[in-house]
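Now for today's protein.

===
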Amino acid sequence: MKKKVQTAVMGVSGYAGMELARLLLRHPQLESVTPLFLRRAETAGHATPLTELHPHLLDNNGSRSLHVEAFSWDLLKDRGVDVLFLATPHEQSREMVPEAIERGLRVIDLSGAWRLSEAQNRAVYKFEDEGSATAVSVQAKSVYGMPELYREEIKDAELVANPGCYPTSVILAIKPLLASGWVDLDRGIVSDSKSGVSGAGKAPSAKTHFMYAADNLSAYGVFGHRHTGEMLEQLGLQSRQFIFTPHLLPIPRGIFSTIYLSFKEPKQVTEIETCYRKFYENSPMVRLFPAGQLPQIQYSVRTNYCDIGFHLAADGRRCVIVSCLDNLLKGAAGQAVQNLNVMYRWSESEGLA
């Protein structure tokens, strides 16, 4: 008899946590196993109704009875939790993951706490436990949670470090071309990426305030965004070979990355299209547009797809790639559920497509 998988979500109050709750509650493989929704133990008050936090999850199938409970390790043990999703700040994930692994839980962490292998790239987070024996041990167990690249490693992973939203859009767009060896790295790669306001998280700030973001478009984090190191590591690039500039779009959700690169030798459109299709032939969550057609945010928003299209210049060497996704789904919660599917050998797109 197939074992039922008990999931738990820590950090359900945020945007990514909200989407995790929605996806897990409707996942076909989890129909008879209600996820455990958790909040910080020190938060005052009784258990909060889930639909009070997220009214749009209200239905006629018992959602009113679901509560967000105070976190404790004993509670996870009593409920028989198998997989713990962490939609928490980086620092909190650094604290929780070592004990979760020690207790035999499998973890899917949506923060940036365990994504980076190289110390110089992790430095941007200023982790207090950097270099400790525990941190080194846990980092060695971490698998970068991009199924299109690490499907086999994810299957048996104890810790899956869910990728960032910007990196997902950029890595999936360029990896096949870099793997082919065609790209002229001496001419560099430029990624001009734009995100909806929800990418900044639920906590308000001066720059995500309606009066700042509405009717506006602004660049930020130039030559210093913390996702840059993640992209360099996964693409095998040096910092001199890659420029990443993020921008804030005045829309709720979605990412639009426009990437510019050149080839060492002239290429044909059919060669590039074949390269992409072969690389992603077993990747149901990547949609490839026909040559000359480009994705738009409206096509991928509220889905778990990453849409990729390209235009090749007449000289056959200059190429523009456009990649779009929903930052809260393929860029966060949807990809986390996709990783869950891989870990338990379910259909990769189950509960997502």
Q: What stands out?
A: The chain is about 30% helix and 20% strand. Residues 94 and 158 are 15 Å apart (CA to CA).
